[in-house]
Design a protein that fits this description.
The chain is of the alpha/beta class and 212 residues long. It is built from 6 helices and 9 strands. Strands 3-1-2-4-5-6-7-8-9 form a 9-stranded mixed beta sheet. The longest helix has 14 residues. The structure holds iron/sulfur cluster (SF4). Iron/sulfur cluster binds next to loops.
């Protein structure tokens, strides 16, 4: 059984799939406590569902793109099997993970969006850097940047691990903390080979609206 916080149909707000309709499976629990977390409601609340029940619910939306998110989905080991089963059913599957738990056992068909937590998140020490060796070209590494220190740190990690050669690198702002134009200007000044992303769902709907 999986502990599910919510399953809903919306527009993918982030990543290279931004703008596409997507079914989100939000799993309960998270082992991190980022300063800017906007999904604290997923830390404990949830209901039990089997993998078969989850897949049946996802199928109702007639939507091929599915994202497994949280909380931190990898806290529940069964999430690995859920993603495999979704791939077997022909869905295009994405995973959003905070980057503190191993990704090595995840089905290679899954597009992994891996956070590297910046200093202002308060969770930088939890980054599991071993994960970098398992990144595939379809995966994406995401930095959520709230300060100039975060930006400089992110730039260092891209350089150190040659992340932009391995996969897509996403730079995004901590909503309400750093102006998008500031981050965009820094990226252009330093001629970084990264992709700036807006959290589209926070612009379409109220920033704190759930289930979108
Ligand atoms: S990893 Fe995600 S869900 Fe967990 S505390 Fe950080 S922002 Fe919130």
């Amino acid at each position: 059984m999986l502990k599910i916080n919510e399953i809903y149909h919306s527009i993918q707000g982030e990543s290279t799939k931004a703008g596409l309709p997507c079914v989100f499976i939000r799993l309960t629990y998270c082992n991190l406590r980022c300063t800017y977390c906007d999904t604290e409601y997923a830390f404990y609340e949830g209901y039990d569902k089997s993998i078969d029940e989850v897949i049946d619910e996802v199928k109702k939306y007639n939507c091929n793109l599915v994202e497994v998110t949280g909380g931190e989905p990898l806290v529940q080991n069964e999430s690995i099997e859920l993603m495999k089963r979704l791939c077997d059913e022909g869905f295009e599957v994405m995973l959003e993970t905070g980057g503190s738990l191993p990704i090595s056992e995840i089905d290679k068909r899954v597009r992994i969006i891996l956070d590297l937590k910046c200093p202002s998140s308060g969770m930088m020490k939890k980054n599991l850097y071993e994960n970098i060796e398992y990144l595939k070209s379809i995966d994406e590494v995401k930095f959520v940047i709230g300060t100039r220190e975060d930006y400089e740190w992110s730039k260092e990690q891209v350089e150190k691990y040659q992340l932009d050669k391995k996969c897509t690198v996403l730079f995004s702002v901590v909503f309400g903390e750093l102006e998008p134009v500031t981050l965009v200007n820094w990226i252009l000044e330093d001629k970084l080979n990264v992709r700036y992303q807006l959290q589209m769902h926070k612009i379409i709907w109220e920033p704190d609206k759930k289930g979108v």
